[in-house]
Design a protein that fits this description.
Layout lengths: L15 E9 L2 H11 L5 E8 L6 E9 L2 H13 L3 E4 L1
């Protein structure tokens, strides 16, 4: 079924709550990295999954983003921290 939107970016109404899933090896290091990027009191941090081998884990950071530029800036800052292996 083709609704005419294939290949297009979804329309997001800003400001909105946004979740970043951060994957790394040490929870404390990832939480510290979050604190370097955003005010921890302005976001919710919850534990995500642990890999089957127990080496990797995820944390979910939920916060309000004002616009697409802020969302992308936060993504880049999280991804640049060595404690964070992957940002989803």
């Amino acid at each position: 079924m083709n609704n005419g939107n294939s290949g297009c970016k979804p329309e997001i109404d800003f400001p909105c709550r946004w979740q970043f899933r951060l994957i790394g090896e040490e929870r404390a290091a990832m939480i510290a990295a979050v604190g370097m990027v955003v005010d921890r009191s302005a976001c919710e941090i919850t534990d995500g999954n642990v890999s089957s081998g127990g080496r990797y884990l995820s944390v979910i950071v939920e916060l309000t983003v004002a616009d697409e530029a802020e969302r992308l800036r936060l993504y880049r800052q999280f991804a640049a921290d060595p404690a964070i292996r992957v940002v989803l």
